[in-house]
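Section 5.1 Outputs to date
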Amino acid sequence: MINDQNQPSHRSPEDPMKHLDDWESDLKSRYPKPAPSAVEHEITECQKHEGESNKAREDFRKYDAEARSSVKEFYRLNHQFQTYDFVQQKRHQYLSLTQRRMGIWEAMEYLNTLVDDSDPDTELSQIEHLLQTAESIRADGHPEWFVLTGLIHDLGKILCLMGEPQWAVVGDTFPVGCQYAKSIVYHDFFKQNPDWDHPVYSTKLGVYQEKIGLDQIIMSWGHDEYLYHVVKNHLPTEALYMIRYHSFYAAHRENEYQRFFDKQDEHYFPWVRRFNEYDLYSKSDQRPDVAKLKPYYESLIQRYFPSSLAW
């Protein structure tokens, strides 16, 4: 179970999942990695890089019945309580960025105080998870800003250490203040949300206009939106799209909410889809050498970020 090391190990009713990443196992079940073609398979076998996940798609789909039940309960809470007003309250609470000051590597170490007793895919630490994603991206020859994005993309999960329940930190994100797309997982749970039959929020456009642009859309609250605001002045637009929308599966996997996309979104959103392959499928049991990799990543961090950031 993921817990602050200084906190008792029991789960509250608002934290039904044994560990924070149960929902990612559910994602891998919903969106299994595509099987490679014969040619791609041969290339993969000949050129498989160190640190790449060797797990079969089926392995990612194996998590116990309790996990499935807890993920369902997690989504029930998420869909019931992620209202337009709730999100506005959280934005007011956190987006002034007055919680604390720390650097990127320090934030990684802070996130590492989340203890995971039973990850279904790997028993690695939070820092090791981040390094796996970054190293997979680096091995494929992507630009350094892309590598850095892989390293930091989940740092917003420190919201758990600030007292937020699981359903306000992880999970598929979606616009609030308008009609919920039917493709969102466990869509029926939205019927328990006070916004479900709101005269404005329940309409297709809600409080928005067509082609208004995703930057003007209020997304459900979680680690994506929080981290975006922490780092938005330091990374390229492509990276910021990856960070802000990597959990927006209704859009980048189901092609929903296209009515709100403006020309900038149409240009940059393919980067979110490109990043998703690494976000979902880079886990493996092979431990990255944190001590060996740390100097490289500290140097990379220094090229983009100041020594201290407001969180």
